[in-house]
Amino acid sequence: VVVGVREGRQIFENLKKACCYILTHLGPEIVPYVLNFALMTPQAIETIVLLLVDLGTEMLPGISLAYEESEERVMSLPPRTAKDHLICPNVLIQGSLIMGGCVEVFFCLWGFYWTFADFGFSFRSLILGPNTGYRGSYSSLTATQQVKFRDICLANAKYQATHPGGCSTAAGMELFMAHFSTVLSHAQAAYFLTFVQCQAIHVLCRRSQTLSLFSPSQTFNWRMIPALCFTIGFACFFVYVPGVNNAFLLAPVSSSNACSALWCIPVILLIEEGRKLLCRLSPEGVIAYLTLY
Fold first, then answer.
1. Which of 186, 213, 236, 273 has its CA 20 to 30 A from that of 122?
2. Is the whole-model pTM more than 0.90?
3. Rounded to 10 degrees, what is the CA torsion of 42, 47, 51, 57?
4. Taking a C-beta distance cutoff of 8 angstroms, is the pair 69, 4 a contact?
């Protein structure tokens, strides 16, 4: 009976871990649309790329969480009632608000705007205004929008260095619009790859609620290794394979830009290890109350 109860609780807990992991992507998927609407900046990730996240990069790591061994605390929890749901407020706080709502969004946007800055575009120049077609031709823009993009072109010292006088003619501006569209594809690829990096380290943190990832008591889940390898390879395939990346409006971003937010790994580890330590030291404390599910 005890073994059966433990197995049942382990299954329910692992389902919650998987839900918490999956919910983390809500922030990085929603915020680009909010910024596009509120600040009128270019969209950091296209809808078609979201399908790569939801149906590709998150599938196998989420499934691998089902094979995690239960923690010791699982048998000390009171029996759940019929009103206890799989998606509880603590799962939302842990997944959507803390990790997805703040940390991952920050790093994904870092990768996006870092790439633009690497090509000489400031954040202020990316506030384009309403109904601006930033992937279209220069001739298709209104007079106001043409002035806006001409100012962006003139303010970009890196572009001016390689294309002197390229902002003064209509033909030169057509080239600049093509350049802007290409840079946007690079930046969106950086956002996508940073998204995958954050989710990869996050799924490792989700393996346990209170046990440190580096604890000798942490069991070895071999299924997570091929799952993460598939996730990284899957993302790189759609970014770096010619023809495939064009279909998803992505471009082969440089390694320096793709890894510009790689410091998300120690930051996310530090946040999660600190939270787990506080939960172990104070099982009845506020952090444990808000984040343990």
1. 236
2. yes
3. 10
4. no
Six-digit token string for 180: 């802007």
179 burial via Cβ count (<10 Å: 0-12, 13-18, 19+): middle
In a 3-state reduction of DSSP, which class is residue 142?
Answer: coil
Asked whether 221 and 67 are in contact (CB, 8 A), the reply is yes
What's the burial of 190, exposed, middle or buried (CB within 10 Å: 0-12/13-18/19+)? buried
Using a 10 angstrom Cβ sphere, with 0-12 exposed, 13-18 middle and 19 or more buried, the burial of residue 4 is exposed
The per-residue pLDDT for 293 is: 79
Q: Report the distance separating Cα 123 and Cα 145, nearest Å.
A: 17
What is the rounded distance in angstroms from the CA atom of residue 266 to the CA atom of residue 269? 5
DSSP letter assigned to residue 102: I
Q: Is 85's pLDDT higher than 80? A: no
